[in-house]
Amino acid sequence: PETEEEYNKFEEALKTKISFFEKSKYYAPFLEKLFTNLAVSLESEDVKRIGATLNTVFHEKQRQQKEQEKNSKKKGKKKIVIKAERDNDFGDLAAASTGEYNDYYDEDFI
Questions:
Q1: pTM for the whole structure
Q2: What domains sit in the chain, N to C, each tagged with a CATH number?
Q3: How many CB atoms lie within 10 A of CB 90?
Q4: Among 5, 42, 80, 89, which residue's CB has the most CB atoms within a 10 Å radius?
Q5: pLDDT tens digits, residue range 18-57?
Q6: Environment class of residue 78 by beta-carbon count within 10 Å: exposed (0-12), middle (13-18) or buried (19+)?
């Protein structure tokens, strides 16, 4: 490649070919070795710029991962609500007046 357009096409072709193997457990170590071998011949400023770009990608991925974990915790974690009810103080009086009063325990007083 000699022009910027040719380099862009070359970049796309390489990306397509290499990313085909991204599911492999050897993919990340392969890229690390490849980048290291390619960067050896570059000027220090170019390596610094590429490193900064990769660092930016790292921080963006990290932010997305935290956001995704935060969202999954919100969805998976339901708020526990405790509802306590108190008997009506006059419940026995109301039951007695309607004939529903249970006097089973009234005879068992000491």
A1: 0.59
A2: 4-76 (1.10.246.60)
A3: 8
A4: 42
A5: 999 999 999 999 999 999 999 999 999 999 999 999 999 9
A6: exposed
